[in-house]
Amino acid sequence: MTSPDLWKETPLIYSRRLSEITGASVYLKLENLHPSYSFKYRGISHFVRKAKEELGSEVHLVIASGGNAGLAAACAAKSLNLRCSVFIPEGVTKSTLDLLQREGAEVIVGGRQYSDALKSAAELVAKESQAVMVPAYDNPTLWQGHSSMVHEIHRQLKQEPDAIFCSVGGGGLLGGIMVGCKDVGWEHVPIVALETTGSDCFYESMSLNGGRFNSEKKELSSGKNLVHNHEHSVHLAHFTSFSSKASGSLGASEPSAGVVRMALDRKGGVKTVSVPDELSMEALVLFSNDHKLLVELACSTTLIPAYHAPLFDKLVPAKDIPGVAVFIVCGGFKIDLETAMEYEKTSRQHPRGTGKSWTVKYDDGNLFSF
């Protein structure tokens, strides 16, 4: 376990409202309360601290990001009085730019797409001996940092949960949860990882290594390429385009091969779920009304089963006594009142009680409507 030198323990709160809906005891781990507003601060600050220990106070932190990873790196660098450069693609909002600069980061526009920004960042690191590339999600040091949240849950909850729910993109958060669960003896506790359709590279990658694509001929739809990672012996879905509004946070081009391998081998398993954007929008609005907290669309995706008992029951095995579920409120700064109001308008176009139903994908291409 890491020592939380740069962050404070986040609360684990009981949600009476979500417990009423699901029939289970629902607890919320409030990772939105970190200095950078998201769980990413744990792993990235842990990585930054280790970089300073190894290379000294002259280390130059470099990251390509237009979102939460970049802000986490900037916040950690400011706390440790280190230089930080954030490469962003064109089109990043002025509010994001201002936020990064307020944290003391040097912000460089590195091209039209994230891949361009990443290339520019890598070129800088190659030129400077004291420069270090800060990873966004695919790194064991990050997972170790993120795992600290599970150690906190273990102390706070004082019992073993029946399920842990989280969002997933590249797999950094999920990797940390799996590492943490192994540390505290919760390897058989089910983990449910949710992402939005159109940015669901983890769901697609897990499916590639399961029954739906368990054949010699593996094919993907347009906008996705098949990649084989030899080190971890897994197939990955590489996305070349995204159609989800949550793609800014969940939209990794491909997930971490190491995390996919861990998920496939885990004793308690990892259930992957792909949901429509509109469900995430609905959950965001409901959560803000019920708990007075405004979170990113990627974060509200985690909360969808808590607001839909039939889906919750499908994902969490029924027991004789009410179960205990932990939802990771992963946070994110890319949300404001104006955007939340837009989401509310969209969610109203699919009201409950009209005979319409939602359909989600889970595990190996199974469909569930409710």
How does this model look, in words?
- The protein is an alpha/beta fold.
- It folds into 2 domains: 12-38 and 139-369, 3-Layer(aba) Sandwich (Rossmann fold), CATH 3.40.50.1100; 40-133, 3-Layer(aba) Sandwich (Rossmann fold).
- The chain contains 16 helices and 14 strands.
- The strands form 3 sheets. It has an 8-stranded mixed sheet with strand order 1-2-12-7-8-11-13-14, sandwiched between helices. Strands 5-4-3-6 form a 4-stranded parallel sheet, sandwiched between helices.
- A hairpin with a 3-residue loop joins β13 and β14 (366-369).
- The longest helix has 16 residues, at 40-55.
- The chain is globular.
- It comes from Galerina marginata (strain CBS 339.88).
